[in-house]
Design goal:
The protein has a single domain, classed as Rossmann fold, CATH 3.40.50. It contains six helices and nine strands, in the order ααββαβαβαββαβββ. The strands form two sheets. The chain has a seven-stranded mixed sheet with strand order 5-4-3-6-7-8-9. A hairpin with a 4-residue loop joins strand 7 and strand 8. The longest helix is centred in the middle third of the chain and has 14 residues. The chain starts with a helix and ends in a 14-residue tail after the last strand. It binds S-adenosylmethionine. S-adenosylmethionine binds next to strand 2, helix 4 and strand 4.
Length: about 210
């Protein structure tokens, strides 16, 4: 899988390659799906209606986050914990805070992170990630923020919690198709925005995104 993503020019950075070689996707898929772990497809997380994103999508986002050791990262949408483990294997003691709204996935991710040894670097929070963490804090806390579900617009609280010089990735658009948006907060605290391409993520459900149905 990693060799294929590299040959396709998707994995470029050495630290992304290393992380994807080190963290075994088979340890994060839903029970019974181990045989599918290294196909480049999204995989359902039980009957939650949520998915573990496709490896190429994860690799694209890891590359665009421009990660390095020591960064403090917020992930919204823990799912299986796979992406959080990949980030943790790059940033190490900088630490990852990952928020998930569904309790069943909070427990699934915590178990996966525990058994693979990444729980010491990842704090999994059960809650509404559109509020950031601590919830609604105005403090610039994170070097990087990654949202792995799609929002109708950029939640202001999340951008507020990004440090100056930080990068945030978020899919923005309708619940069917979105733009993958990369935001940089410059040293004056202003936003620099670029659109990386079209993507299809599950909806971000919360106070500053889609309403629960
Ligand atoms: N990053 C995950 C992984 O590595 O398995 C995949 C994430 S999945 C594509 C998106 C996740 O976002 C789902 O688990 C969903 O429950 C979660 N989610 C949706 N809205 C949320 C919110 N407001 N706060 C936290 N998590 C949310």
């Amino acid at each position: 899988m990693v060799a294929q993503l590299k040959a396709q020019g998707i994995i470029k950075a050495h630290n992304v390659e290393e992380a994807m070689l080190k963290v075994r996707r088979e340890d994060f898929v839903w029970p019974g799906q181990q045989d599918l772990a290294y196909d480049d497809n999204p995989l359902p997380l039980g009957d939650t209606g949520q998915t573990l994103s496709a490896p190429h999508m994860i690799a694209i986002m890891l590359e665009e986050l421009e990660l390095s050791a020591g960064q403090h990262v917020l992930e919204v949408g823990t799912g299986s914990g796979y992406n959080a483990a990949l980030i943790a294997s790059i940033v190490g003691s900088g630490g990852v805070v990952s928020i998930e709204r569904l309790e069943v996935l909070v427990n699934f991710a915590k178990g996966n992170l525990e058994k693979t040894g990444y729980s010491k670097f990842v704090l999994v929070i059960h809650g509404d990630g559109t509020l950031g963490y601590p919830p609604e804090s105005p403090k610039e806390t994170y070097d990087r923020i990654i949202v792995t579900a799609c929002a109708p617009s950029i939640p202001k609280t999340l951008f507020q919690q990004l440090k100056k010089g930080g990068i945030m990735l978020i899919p923005v658009g309708s619940s069917y198709i979105q733009d993958l948006v990369k935001l940089k907060k410059n040293n004056k605290g202003e936003v620099e925005k670029s659109v990386l391409g079209s993507v299809a993520f599950v909806p971000l459900v919360g106070k500053y995104a889609y309403n629960p149905s």
